[in-house]
Amino acid sequence: MADIYANGDFVRLKDNKQPTSVDKADQYAYGNSDDLDWDPKTKDIADASEHTFSSRKEKDPSCKAVLLAVLSVSLLVALLALCVLGILYSQLLRSSDLLKEQNRNAAVDIEIQEQNATDSPFEKRKYYYFSSEKLSWMESRDYCTKTGGQLVTITGKDDQYNLASIKLKEPHWIGLHDLYTEGHWMWVDNTTLSGETFWHKRTAGLSEPDNWTQEDSDGEDCACLETESEWFDASCSKLKKFIWEK
Ligand SMILES: [Ca+2]
Ligand SMILES: [Ca+2]
């Protein structure tokens, strides 16, 4: 008796003879005989082998269907996961922008220096605040309004001297503009500029306000306090620190 192994299947032969009916049964039971050297006359065994293959072939379509179904479900899950990730990423970006805006406002709030002007015997109690953040004139005005104050107004010598005593290291916006009518300067509380002014004066050329258009074709419609505490008009879109009062 000899044992033959073919592709992992097992067929038992007796003394190199053709398989007996029991052997055929074994072959039928154990399957693949393609790799064995069978006598062509053993048609039954060939038929049995073919029958085995036919059975497997018949199973293939269902296997493919299952694989396709699994693949489809996997793709659907992957697509849903991508959608969820997209939504989460979008929400993350919005949160990040909101956080940046909050941090920006917080930075302005935290780094504010408060200057108490109560020592002045001539003026009612005023508090001046100096921003560390640079904003356009409009943004500065809106920020001050939002915080319950306004861009600083300078309505007399005492206001001017109080601010001059601070010794500013760079220009700051003040609440003065001629946005509505060129040359007609108004404070942010809608009062017209009157009385003594502190515009920078030049010995040659135009003094301030000169509505210079070299850097901004719209001219200069907003006023700032320069380091010598003199007033200059400047392009409202420029970013500067600002002073507000409460
Ligand atoms: Ca102007
Ligand atoms: Ca100017």
Automatic annotation (TrEMBL):
Gene Ontology cellular component terms for the protein in this record: plasma membrane
Primary location recorded for the protein, binned into one broad class: membrane
Domain named C-type lectin: residues: 122-245
Keyword vocabulary terms for this entry: Membrane, Transmembrane, Transmembrane helix
Residue intervals passing through the bilayer: 65-89
Keyword Ribosomal protein: no
Source superkingdom: Eukaryota
Cross-referenced Pfam families: Lectin_C
UniProt keyword Nucleotide-binding present: no
UniProt-annotated location(s): Cell membrane
Classification via InterPro entries: C-type_lectin-like, C-type_lectin-like/link_sf, C-type_lectin/matrix_domain, CTDL_fold
Protein's membrane topology: Single-pass type II membrane protein
Classification via PANTHER family: C-TYPE LECTIN DOMAIN-CONTAINING PROTEIN 180, RH26557P
Record protein name field: C-type lectin domain-containing protein
Organism whose genome encodes this protein: Cyprinus carpio
